[in-house]
Design a protein that fits this description.
With about 325 residues, the protein is an alpha/beta fold. It is built from 13 helices and 8 strands. It has 2 domains: about 260 residues, TIM Barrel; about 40 residues, no CATH class.
């Protein structure tokens, strides 16, 4: 038994790019694209699109932070696929003007996902409207809702619900702080105050619950699910795509190409970059904190595993 309405979105390059400033080789991105094509994944998010500036340069922040059309086309043209996944990019509020964004019918991109905090939902809606005017599918991914004031979140959800240009509304566990009951509770809030929106879910694995919480989101009726190859993503990473495809049991999915990409392309990267659960990230998730301090500690070879010190420092900050 499976629910045919469920769609899977791979965000390996975009979320994984937060580990290495999007410095993925073209060959790596092409390998992930081939894997998602052959696995039957519905959507592949190939990176972010920011405006190039003196502060944000392609050399320092990587080409997949900017997702030029020509770069994406080279990936798509590298592999013939009859039923390729939809291609998505992500906007960050405040980092794009859309001046160079072509209409959807002149682009290989199909979907624009806008990430915003609760305080910036109005700005996120503006970007979604402008994206829809150009012909793209749209999402708004509300980040760090676990740290938001509830009344502010409700007001933002209601505003999104009044915006027909937003196709999908995402619950995002930015800090990996949720347990299954919180996933259900927040989704009930989303359904109550944004009843007209299709919902998506994006999990982080700080407490080793990304897969379980994604399962809970499925139980609660969410039909657009984020995952990454081998769980690659910022800090503790994300829900593992290979586990999710196995769980869904939909015959349209073939998990074998994902495992092939893991073996041939992802495992070698573990010598260069770190992701996945450890106790530092577990503490960060338990305390509902942004993982920046945990990532900073993990980057220090002398203190990277000092979980007790991290816990005492983190708890002393809150009294």
């Amino acid at each position: 038994m499976y629910r045919k309405e469920i769609k899977v979105l791979d965000c390996t390059i975009r979320d994984g790019g937060l580990i290495n400033n999007f410095q993925f080789s073209d060959e790596f991105v092409k390998a992930i694209y081939r894997a998602t094509c052959d696995a039957g994944v519905d959507v592949m998010e190939i990176g972010k699109r920011l405006d190039v500036s003196d502060e944000y340069t392609r050399e320092k922040y990587g080409k997949w932070n900017f997702c030029d059309e020509d770069d994406i086309k080279r990936v798509v043209d590298s592999y013939e696929c009859e039923n390729r996944p939809l291609l998505a990019i992500m906007f960050d509020v405040g980092r794009i003007t859309m001046a160079s964004m072509p209409p959807a019918d002149q682009s290989v991109v199909d979907m624009v996902r806008t990430a915003c905090y609760v305080a910036d939902i109005d700005k996120g809606i503006d970007l979604a409207k402008r994206s829809k005017d150009l012909g793209y599918l749209t999402t708004i991914n509300v980040m760090a809702c676990s740290a938001a004031i509830k009344t502010d979140l409700i007001e933002g959800l209601q505003e999104i619900n009044r915006t027909p240009e937003v196709d999908y509304l995402y619950l995002v566990d930015s800090y990996g702080a949720f347990y299954s009951e919180q996933v259900t509770s927040y989704l009930e809030l989303y359904k109550e105050h944004a009843p007209d929106k299709e919902l998506g879910f994006h999990a982080h694995n700080n407490q080793q619950l990304a897969f379980a919480n994604t399962q809970q989101a499925i139980i609660d009726g969410v039909n657009l699910l984020d995952a990454t190859v081998n769980g690659m993503g910022r800090g503790a990473g994300n829900c593992n795509l290979e586990l999710l495809l196995n769980f869904l049991k939909n015959p349209k999915f073939d998990v074998r190409p994902i495992y092939k990409a893991i073996q041939e392309n992802v495992v070698p990267l573990r010598d260069e970059m770190e992701w996945g659960f450890n106790d530092i990230y577990g503490i960060s998730g338990h305390l509902n904190r942004h993982p920046r301090n945990a990532m900073k500690q993990r980057a220090n070879p002398e203190t990277k595993d000092n979980c007790y010190d991290f816990l005492m420092d983190a708890t002393s900050e809150v009294g």
